[in-house]
Amino acid sequence: MPIKETDIVLDLGCSVGNVSHLLANKVSHVTGIDLNPDFIQFCDENKSSNEQYICSNFLDLDFSKLPCLTGLLGSFSLSYLADPKPYLDKVYMKMDKGSWIALLDVSCFISGNMNKQSKFYEKVRNFELESCKSGVYDFNFGAKLKPLLNKSGFKVIHCDENVHDVELNFNGCAKEEVVAIWRARLSRLVLLKRLLDSEYCEFEREFLAFINSDSHEQRNSLQFVVAIK
Description:
- By secondary structure, the protein is α/β, with parallel strands linked by helices.
- 33% of the residues lie in helices and 18% in strands.
- The protein is built from 8 helices and 7 strands, in the order E-H-E-H-E-E-H-E-H-H-E-H-H-H-E.
- The protein has helices at 18-24, 37-46, 85-94, 121-130, 145-151, 176-188, 190-196, 200-211; strands at residues 8-12, 29-34, 51-55, 71-75, 100-106, 155-160, 222-228.
- It has a 7-stranded mixed beta sheet.
- It is globular, with a radius of gyration of 19 Å.
């Protein structure tokens, strides 16, 4: 990210503020926003003098009440929007020339961590590609980052289409805590459970066994794009 000491940054979906803290050490001011009140309370209790936190859906955020933004970071956040382009258009209009936006998001991260020979692979892959139509979550949003930013007027200056991550995009056997995270995630995938129906338990066992094997491979499941106005 083309960070400057004078930057004023918005962190979309800040969670417990870890990245906001990192940014605060390098820029003038950081505003973190998250819908989870417990996260925001934790952030408020641990913030530095150049950090502020807002509990809100970022669609409802009033940009007029914020300092003029020169940077925006979105990690796994815009993929929850049924149509993210109007929001990116709004961000573009609120930023001065030379400001930057950095987006990190997933690209078919379930099928990307499956054995391609699995009988479930095509069903799961198609489920991810079609999920955006439900308006609930876009499992393939990472692959759309570049064209979306371009359409909103931004110029892409950096793109990593295969970001290494120990949980979402890695090689070899997963760490024990990562397997536990995936087990919990799979228990929450209601729509995929509905699709696979009585076979879901078999899919779950197979998936967890594969990420816990040496044959598991990193496969473009996480993408990071930086652009400027």
